[in-house]
Amino acid sequence: MDKPIPTPPPRRTMSPYVGKALWRTGLVVLVMLISSYILNNNLLGPFSAFIKGPQGASLDRLARVVHRWGSPVPVRDFPLVVLLELEQQSITQLSPGSNVFHRGQLARITRKILGYQPKGIFLDFDLRYPSNEGGVRSAGDQQLLALFREVRTPLLLPDPVALGQPLSRLNPFLHTVQAQVFYDSDGQTRKIPRPRPGQPLAASLGLYCLGLGIDLRDGHRCQQSVAPGNPRSDGKRIVYREIRRFAANATGSQLWPNLVVISGLDFLNDGLVQSEATQGALFLVGRTYPQADDVHFTAMGPVQGIDIHANALLTLATYRSFSETLGWGPVLLVVPLVVFVALWLTYSITDGWLRASRFQGFAQALIETAVAAWFLFFAGVLILQYTGHFLDYLYPIVAFQMGALLLKLFAGGKKDENKASDKGQEVADKLKEVVQGTGDG
Q1: 284 to each of 52, 262, 437, how far by Cα in Å?
Q2: Residue 423 burial by CB count (10 A; 0-12/13-18/19+): exposed, middle or buried?
Q3: For strand 259-263 and strand 81-86, is the pairing parallel, antiparallel, or unpaired?
Q4: CA angle at residue 160 from 199 to 188, to 5 degrees?
Q5: Which of 205, 219, 220, 255 could make an S-S bridge to 241, C-beta 3.0–4.6 Å?
Q6: How far does CA 91 lie from the centroid of its chain?
Q7: Rounded to an integer, what distance in angstroms lies between the CA atom of residue 337 and that of residue 268?
Q8: 49-66 vs 360-387: helix axis angle to the nearest 10?
């Protein structure tokens, strides 16, 4: 008796939804690569603005989400950052009736800061000219000038001149930094200016280098302390977080875990405890009253200049990299994975549950874009929160739509080709019938 021939196990075939999603994901990546090459090399000329323009707005949406989220801790043992603000009460009591903050009180505050042995101090004040008209120095000016001559801690100022004296003549520990904020074409402040040869460092970058123990006189080393990223970019985008102010008797934590905010008056009244954490801190000193004097527009609304510098410094301290977008390696991993999952879910719905529905085509087009956009948006939020990089979630959607258009054009061409082939075959068959009928007659 012959033994029955065993039937081979059925071959496992890839799910049609998976295969379709893989094919279209590959097309999206290809379109992204081609369009990125065109944009990076400015092959579209002025028309590049139609694609680059919406990028700032899409990245602002990601920034608004993390604006009220707690930040990760700094990536290395970075010193504490103390934001010493001169708000309304401090201005009223320390410098009443004067538009220029009393220079003697500023000297008093700075001298007390020196007791904490800081790694660096940034004074965000216009100190180019004496307090009195005609270039006459007041007693407070003389106190501040004497402090500038004797200080042995790196002190950052926004101008190359202090009280009529060039910083280079006063003290080698005085450094000029760039305190002006960087504006994009729409008037928004989004970036830390990239270091340029022969130009002062941004205040935040100078403080960041001091926090790493880098001497600012070694400008080359300081510039190289941050990953260069794309050399064509204007700078690194700032990850803004809300800087909280608490009432005198209230306590709370900052969203930047490495930040302490204290008023000038509280500081002079020993409000900042001498401790291991505060010793060797970085200090930023600036006015926050009146607010209209130094306010700038951001995606989060109006922000004080000193708050922008603090956010910029803590962005560098937490995330370090100067690249404003993801590198090609992560992009080619993150974007294809997210797009694939979105498309696989979409085709599981449209080609599965809605297969017999007359709305299948409309639902597929709608769900594809919506699911991919939401997945990419949340991926961009998480990437920004934990790495500080920005993923332009709209850019893959544009590439996705272009890829879908190419597929439709290709499919339409194939249909026309098939129709023409069928029509030609039909004509040939009829001609054949006529010829055979003529022969029989």
Answers
A1: 34, 11, 101
A2: exposed
A3: parallel
A4: 55
A5: 255
A6: 34
A7: 54
A8: 60
> 402-422 b/e with 16+ CB inside 10 Å = b?
bbbeeeeeeeeeeeeeeeeee
Distance of alpha carbon 324 from alpha carbon 5, whole angstroms? 64
The alpha-helical segments, DSSP class H, found in 245-359 are: 264-268, 305-319, 328-348
**Do 309 and 81 touch, CB atoms closer than 8 A?**
no
300 closest CA partner among 62, 71, 87: 62
Tens digits of residue pLDDT in 190-243:
889 888 878 899 999 999 999 999 998 876 777 777 766 666 667 888 999 999
- Following CA atoms 130, 136, 138, 144 in sequence, which dihedral angle do they give, to the nearest 10 degrees? 40
Amino acid at 373: A
CA–CA separation, 305 vs 428, rounded Å? 80
What backbone torsions phi and psi does residue 384 show, to the nearest 5 degrees?
-65, -45
Q: 314 Cβ partners below 8 Å, 6+ apart?
A: 71, 74, 81, 241, 256, 258, 259
Contact indicator for 319, 239 with CB cutoff of 8 Å: yes
Encoded tokens for 205:
């970058």
Cα 158 to Cα 6, 122, 379: the distances in Å are 85, 8, 38
Contacts 24+ apart (CB under 8 A), 19-25: 20/343, 20/347, 20/351, 21/340, 21/343, 21/344, 21/346, 21/347, 22/340, 24/339, 24/343, 24/403, 24/404, 24/407, 25/336, 25/339, 25/340, 25/343
Structure tokens at 376: 């990419």
* Cis-peptide into 172, omega within 30 deg: no
Spatial distance between the Cα atoms of 412 and 404, rounded to a whole number of angstroms: 12
| Alpha carbons 265 and 73: distance in angstroms, whole number | 29
Contact 385, 66 (CB under 8 A): yes
Enumerate the β-bridge partners of residue 192: 236
Give the whole-angstrom CA distance, residue 160 versus residue 414. 69
Residues 51-96: pLDDT tens digits? 666 777 888 999 999 999 999 998 778 999 999 999 999 999 999 9
* Predicted local confidence at residue 51, as pLDDT: 62
- Extract the runs of DSSP E, i.e. beta strands, from 280-422: 282-287, 295-298, 301-304
Other C-beta atoms within 10 Å of 39: how many?
15
Using CA atoms, how far apart are residues 132 and 128, in angstroms rounded to an integer? 12
The letter for the amino acid at 369 is T
